[in-house]
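Title: Request for sanity check on Inosose dehydratase prediction

Description:
We are preparing a figure and want to confirm that the structure record we downloaded matches what your pipeline produces today. Could someone re-run it with the sequence below and paste the raw structure tokens into this thread? We only need the token string, no images.
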Amino acid sequence: MQLGFVSAILPESTLEEVFAAAAEFGYDCVELMCWPQGKAERRYAGVTHLDTARFDQGAAEETLALADRYGVAISGLGYYPNPLSPDAAEAEGAVAQIRSVIAAAAVLGVRRMNTFIGRDWKLSVDDNWPRFLQTWEPIIRFAEEQNVQVGIENCPMLFTDDEWPGGKNLAISPAIWSRMFEAIPSTHFGLNYDPSHMVWQQMDYLQPLVDFADRIFHVHAKDVRVDRRLLDQVGILAKPIEYHTPKLPGLGEVDWGRFCSVLGDSGYTGPVCVEIEDRIYEGSLAARRQALQLSSHYLRNFIPRLPR
């Protein structure tokens, strides 16, 4: 396995500065954010370290040369919108950018693109299903043509009133993943697995590593602390942000030694990328860089650095 981080935590940094930080803090790889140029609509969104709208073979060669200069690989390209939004313009733009990111991953030779399925949060899973099929069957066919694996992150995107009650991402549970993969059985369609989302949803975060071993293309390393006192006050039907807090790996409830053990036993040999959303470390660039350093130091106990 390779240890990396998600570049969204360094929005003000250039691509070279992202690679330099990865090298400085002992990371093997980076997941590069590929939002279209424009204003962010939520935290950790709108970050563009690779602009796919202006990406060709020359740009790919420059990007790979820069990565090689710092001895850092690109684990995948990331873009996390809502392609099933009830706003038709938003959905169409998201789908177009997903296809653009897939194409860029192919040109780079990275072969991994990570995103969300999306959801109309006001509708049930069943009522979203026709649009899921209509939207995602063509996307996955395109990914097959480009020989790029699409990894879907399992975050419910259920934090604010605007995302209530269903959240903005269908792919939140093993039951739904099984239904997705049965409907679209492509080997280019899988998961970007984050155990923290399983923890606050009160689900086993280890068993999916076994049950979906052949579908895990990429992994996010984010921890979470569930405040049981608050949960007892508001209950599971409250907005999740009312009772849980994202944390750095090792500061929450995920047993990372056991997680990496089961992940390795499942046959996974790919990237594990730290996703920093711990608000304690969001106050400054220096604090966020410290978070990267602390996370690398901790996870190297379980993911040793590979010889170059």
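Thanks, this matches our download. Residues 125-146 form the longest helix (22 residues).
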